[in-house]
Amino acid sequence: MARQARLSDLVRATASLVDCVAGLSREGLPSPLRFTPDGERAADAVAEPASADLGGSLGKVWLERSGPPGPLDDLVLERFAMAARVLGHAEPGGGAPQLADPALVELLLGEQAAEEDRARALRLLGLDAGRPVRVVAVGTEDERDPGVAAVGLLARGGSLPRLHVAVVGEVAAVLMQPRDDSVVAALRSALADRARERDTAGGVRVGVGDAVPGLEVRRSWLQARLAERFAVPAVEPVVVHGELGSLTLLAEVPVTRLREQDDVRALDALAATPTGAADVAALEAFCRTGSLRQAAVALHRHHSSVAARLAHVEDALSWRLDEPGDRFRARLALLARRLAQRG
């Protein structure tokens, strides 16, 4: 992708990797692309190939094996579809994520550049300085490359506008110029689809900043970074800065003070026990959703299992989660712990 490969190159490379015919069809292509492992155009097709959709009505990719599927075919198909959405040159002016020049993105998001340098960076990225820009921050909890995670997530959002993705530190920055407020809904839908497919949201956290004038994009970036610190995979993976309200004040507390707070230390101690991490996850799901059954749905667990874990939390921390005061205390401690972990 970094070398601006064509869709035909992608199909050839996939066929060579899996040692079978690979194919791709999408909106804008006059006919499907099908290549053999040696890079030649394929002839007869397999009756029912394993396939993956590109999202909406955009098209699909597939692998054609005459025998049983290979052990990595599902993973290859997922990456194949992701790369096809990103490359997407067959769809002029499409909204596929573009791998942006990190230097330009860092210049825009930094605090040192002069206004004329920011304006030039906007132009070079293909962004309109006269229209609002919104920044989305994408982080991961499983040490995966946040840039890869961002592209994989955003490639699912067929209705998203043209995007520019670059990794800044440990978080991927996504710059976009949406024409409406559908971005948040598209992101939440993409993560929900991912969760249904994998029984998990994959450890992805997303923070969404406000839409701001192009030359003030750093403000949206800082908001997105802050919102990403509040996000919880599977339970509340997408957090919008504008919806946090007074909770943003908690982020002004120094990280060292948050870590040393007694309730935060108690949660850390519980999480360090053999079953404690699952207990804390159940508590977080319960506090975020406000319902035992909704927490169970978010965690893909039976509600009785979640109830047992919450009972263990109550015994360990001397909290009573049916009491409003203790629920608020637990929620506040969980938020403080999240912010301390990502400070």
UniProtKB/TrEMBL annotation:
<comment type="similarity">
    <text>Belongs to the CdaR family.</text>
</comment>
<dbReference type="InterPro" id="IPR041522">
    <property type="entry name" value="CdaR_GGDEF"/>
</dbReference>
<dbReference type="InterPro" id="IPR025736">
    <property type="entry name" value="PucR_C-HTH_dom"/>
</dbReference>
<dbReference type="InterPro" id="IPR051448">
    <property type="entry name" value="CdaR-like_regulators"/>
</dbReference>
<dbReference type="Pfam" id="PF17853">
    <property type="entry name" value="GGDEF_2"/>
</dbReference>
<protein>
    <recommendedName>
        <fullName>PucR C-terminal helix-turn-helix domain-containing protein</fullName>
    </recommendedName>
</protein>
<feature type="domain" description="CdaR GGDEF-like">
    <location>
        <begin position="114"/>
        <end position="228"/>
    </location>
</feature>
<feature type="domain" description="PucR C-terminal helix-turn-helix">
    <location>
        <begin position="281"/>
        <end position="336"/>
    </location>
</feature>
<dbReference type="Pfam" id="PF13556">
    <property type="entry name" value="HTH_30"/>
</dbReference>
<dbReference type="InterPro" id="IPR042070">
    <property type="entry name" value="PucR_C-HTH_sf"/>
</dbReference>
